[in-house]
């Protein structure tokens, strides 16, 4: 064999080995960027345009080369992504506070645990809310001027007219969406059902932020006559985004890999999601999609990484999911009383001081066995 042929052969081998390696890695790359929640939040780090520390912070090693480049190109954005992720986690925990799966997070790089490698509704919600968190936070940071590479969106124009006009500072949701697609979706490479599902849910999160934008206006002109009006588009609160996504969680579509009629000729069209039940409508871009039944989350399981509901506090008089019957999965509960000290009988003293008494009450707590 000639040296050239040998080199070519080696190169092919290397490419093969590398691509199979990156395929196995790719599976677990999903959501790796969530690890930046652990990034040290020194302002120095965030404004350092040379990004010397960016490279040194171990949390950032979780990011792909492309993601690190995006952070370098958009000074100030790391802080925004990180705070968007924090809002998303907070919202996830709030939306699911009364359910068996209560959006648990853990220290370390894989903050949501093994549920991320599954394809159930909870997985769908995690991807959608964190993606929405980035778009929401980045869009707001742009209009607040804390990211160097974007500003308010001044391009939005209504029908116009002589007496009112746009031109106010709109939250830059377009930048937030485009950036989210580049940054968040870049971990999702592949053509299988899991990647299609993650990408779909990421987009559903961004779309929710976008479609819930609201117009706000302010009047100018003589004594409130409103002869001139300035309008702009404002982001929804993140609670609104969470409420919408939680509704879509409840109504999520179970999908399968759409490979009907797949053949060589129609190769481009084979990668899509179809409802599992052919009688159902195909999922809309707003819908959350999943492909696998959720674990019951009742008991500890190392395999699925679920903690179970033992020790969770439940409501003994509620027939709903937060009730002891359902939350404790029929195992029963223990009741204990706990002393709680609260500030009470506060009085306001002019000016400006409030003094309170400490009241001790007994609180009855129910906890799942
Ligand atoms: C418990 O559930 C009942 C019935 O749904 C509700 O009225 C009550 O406010 C709940 N208590 C707490 C502490 O959430
Ligand atoms: C607080 O105020 C209420 C009525 O205003 C009174 O009945 C109660 O005894 C007060 N609590 C304490 C600890 O003083
Ligand atoms: C109430 O409790 C707090 C902390 O336990 C204490 O600092 C404060 O002095 C107490 N206030 C009164 C009025 O006893
Ligand atoms: C280390 C780790 O999390 N491995 C997981 C990678 O993804 C596969 C398939 O989703 C899981 O089965 C592994 O446990």
TrEMBL record:
Pfam families: wnt (PF00110). It is found in: Secreted, Extracellular space, Extracellular matrix. The keyword Repeat does not apply. It comes from the Eukaryota. Its main location: secreted. Residues 1-26 form the signal peptide. Keywords: Developmental protein, Disulfide bond, Extracellular matrix, Lipoprotein, Secreted, Signal, Wnt signaling pathway. Transmembrane segments: none annotated. SMART domains: WNT1. Belongs to the Wnt family. Ligand for members of the frizzled family of seven transmembrane receptors. This is Protein Wnt. It comes from Gekko japonicus (Schlegel's Japanese gecko). The gene is WNT1.
